[in-house]
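Hi R.,

Here's the chain you asked about this morning:
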Amino acid sequence: MEPLSIVAGLAAVCFGVLSGYVIRDRRSRAGLGRAEKKAEEIEKKAQREAQEKKEDADRAIRAREKELYESIRAKENHLNITQERLMKQQDAIEVQAALIREREEEIRRATSQIEEQRRSIRELVETQSQKLEQIANLSPAAAKEELIRQAREKHQEDLAMTLQKMFKERKDEIEKKGLEIMVTALQRYARGHVAEATTSFFPLKDEDLKGKIIGREGRNIKAIERATGVELVIDETPDSIMISSFDPFRREIAYMALEKLLKDGRIQPAKIEEKVEEARQELEVRMHQIGEAAANEVGVFDLPKELITLLGRLHFRTSFGQNVLTHSIEMAHIVAMIAAELKLNVAVAKKGALLHDIGKAIDHDVEGTHVDLGKKLLKKYGVEEAVIWAMQSHHDDYPYASPESYVVTAADILSAGRPGARRGTVENYIRRLADLERIASGFPGVRQSYAVNAGRELRIFVVPEKIDDFRALELAREVANKIQSELKYPGEIKVNVIRELRAVEYAR
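And the predicted structure, written out as tokens:
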């Protein structure tokens, strides 16, 4: 049984193995077929995609080729158009060049003709001059003067009218514009001003203090007057003392010294000298503060300390009753507005106006005019040359070196000539009128002259047989120039030359 069982088992095992192999082989064959079929499908799909990409690439290449072709055609067309335009421009240039050459030839021919005419004219003039010399026995210079004289006599009326018309039109235009600028500046700077007097009043709490100020046998009042240079008037006003002096600086020292003496209570010659010296020292400090305030008010911030102190000293100087520092500040404001209107250097003009009278701060101590002293001071302290040029001509002592100098002079006249700014004496007024009439009467051909309108106008009546219309215009200018060079006056003076011709005949 056992061998058969074993054989049967082996046979079963072999059959199982063989069956498994067969089944596995069939399965392998089936899987391989599916794989091959899938591979074929993938290959076909890849071929289709490759074909589609190839077709897309071909279409893109054809589209790009078409774009390039069209671009090249457009550029070729543009180049052709540009070339045609250049050829046309070249043809036009050649035509213009030909016209220019023809014009140059015409100019050369015309120039030759003009030169020929000039030679003919010169020869004709020389011939006429020789004939004129032979006829009139005159030299060329004398003949020229004779021709000019004849032309002037023939056309002097026309010349006079033309000259007068041109002068009047130009003068009216300049005066109108200048008046607008000056009026605008004065309206914008509406500052009050009062002419200063030559006296100050010191108030007293008690009338008995006058006796202490006078002192025994008047020694105290004499010591005060001697130390300060003022005159004290005691008896004219109750409860006050009048301090009289033409110098405001001295009056201020005397005023401050009296305050200190009354505050101290001891009034004697030694104490008077001490208090006067203290007042002088305090006033020096105050002058610097006043000068600094004035410079700051007009916007000038780069002045040396010494000039600022001298500027403050001008607060205690007057000119015809006008405070010099107030006058300088007013000028600086007016100058700044006028210079701005005329597009000039405002800083230079303003500084020149503020410092134009700086020489008056020392003109009582050093000899020389205040203009010369001012120039020396400004040069000493390193003020720029343009400022010196602006201030040096305000009294016509020096020529006008810059446009700013004209503006400073105009502002000086405006500030000094404003109503109420200065106090002129009757003697000066009468003397100025007499000088105006004297200057006018000194010219030949003047019959009468009158200074009218408070010295603002000079009317001159001339002899018509001696002064013609042309000479009347010249006479007006000559008189005006002589007045400017010899007289000093505020504002301006109108010179009016009147030529009256009366024709009289009798019918018999």
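The chain is about 70% helix and 5% strand.

Let me know if you need anything else.
M.
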